[in-house]
Target: Integrase
Amino acid sequence: MNYIDSFQCYLQEEGKRNRTIEEYVAAVLALEKWVFERTGENFNPDFLTSRDLHEWVSFMQTVEKLAPATINKRVAAIKVYWSYLIQAGYSILNPTIKVKRKRISPLAQAPRWLSRLEQDKFLHQIHKEKNAWKKSRNLAIVQIMLQAGLRISEVVSLDIEDIDLKRRIISVSKAFYSDYETRNTLSYKKLLKFYRTHRLFSSLLKTLFLPKFSRCQSTVTNYSSIGRARKLRNNT
Model:
């Protein structure tokens, strides 16, 4: 029998996000497809064993060559599916108990970053925006992501109170990465230093620190003037 529809309803009642529901259903359908191609019979949860599931995991590794993280997501989804089947009375045994998730090394979990060329291309596209306000906004968003390594969801979740002008930092609290909790802070001084060096943060500084931007620019100018004066004095 096909329990996909009722499984979807169950996940909705559990408050799962639509994206999560889609991933869980896709995992179950992938397993059903593998069973049919392997046996020529329709999927029946009562006839599936732990050995079958281990072979499916091996198939995903060696034939489909899926990433360990993807395999783990599918295994997690199948475990939830069987928990539902047992809870609903559609199955008695749970073959997923002995199926373990693959251990992923920290190196494999490390996020991929954009190369300097990719960053330049990205910023170049933003500078094409003719609307000055939109361009400043987009630069602020993108530079925060590039310089602080924030995710899209973390940037979207930023509130006014997260920008501390007195301490000159932007805080992102309770940002979860895999199995640990971290706290990212974007230093205002680092922004200013980057601005002095590369002149890419003008719009970002104006957008995030507008009240203090004029003072910062004058400070940079004063520093430059002092530096030139010292150089001239030393030469003489």
